[in-house]
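Same chain as my last thread, 366 residues:
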Amino acid sequence: MSKEIYIDGLHRPYNMPIKEVVWVCQFLKNESKRYDKKYLYVAFWKYFINYMIVNSERISDNKRKNGIISFSKASNVKDWMKKYKTIESLSQAVTTILRKRNDDTEREVYSSYKNTSYYVSLTRKLGFVNEKWTLSDDALRLVRINRSFYELTESQIKILFRSILKVDRDFFIPLLLSIKYEKKMPLIKDGDVVLKYLQEEENVKFFKYIRKSILPNYYKVRRYWVDDLRILDRRFTIRLWAKAIIIDLFGAQYFETISSCFIKFVTKYVVSENDSSKKYKKIESQYNWLVRNGKNDQGYVNLYEMKSVFRISFENFEKLIRKYMIDVSGKKIVLLSNTVMSIDSRRRFIINGTPAIKIKIIDKKG
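reply #2:
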């Protein structure tokens, strides 16, 4: 079995602007020799704060990309930095703030430092700098052809895309294929289909153990890159130059196979999600009807009365409730109870290992 190729830990908005890789390479080429390697994270942070302020007149805050601190905050952080005359003293001050923040300024220092540290980490993950802080040939080329603070040249786009594919192929290519379907099918959103495809078809287990609340962020960061790199045309199809890079790296057969497998999976997924959506609406409709008609105990209704509108077996109803609880967890609170007002000897439903005979559904606020 071939090794899975994807970047883990890529769910923070700090990694949304892919241009950050160029900024890090630029710093390492032009400034890094001035510092001991143990201070390079702090040194890049200081460099980037100054670099932002120098460029603040070129681009206003309302055009600032996600994942970059505001120019006003950068100015506040720079003023705070003036107290520290050496990189050693600045590093020590940051270490203290990473442990505890006492005021708004220290919180801005903390967030801006965390911000730039993720820039450096991503640059390393994409292979532009090695463990000895030596820049690759592609990194040097990124710097040599840099023309703008924000915008990427066509050559930079191709270098970055190729580097992403080398370390994130298994996630990034299905994501590219999914966007066209997202635009057409409302049931496909926030990368759900990509994450399910990775788990069910590619057997990538990493995302199975990630908290459901942050799972969409793994998609959103990469989705931001797709727009920055202009990989898709107006029909949301992979552009010819990008397809050529995929084929050059992995072969035409690989691209044809994954495209075919993904299309089949999307079809199966949409049918399944459409069926689930109808059943979930039925669950909520029956629950609300029972509550309105007084057939509840402090909002709890009997699961047998819920099941009465479904033509499915006891076991399949258990599975449906389990799946419902997982899929709506971001929007609703679902509570179970095994307490009854009078004797009820009927078989209990086992939901996530817990015997239950009642259910309560609460909409989450906000």
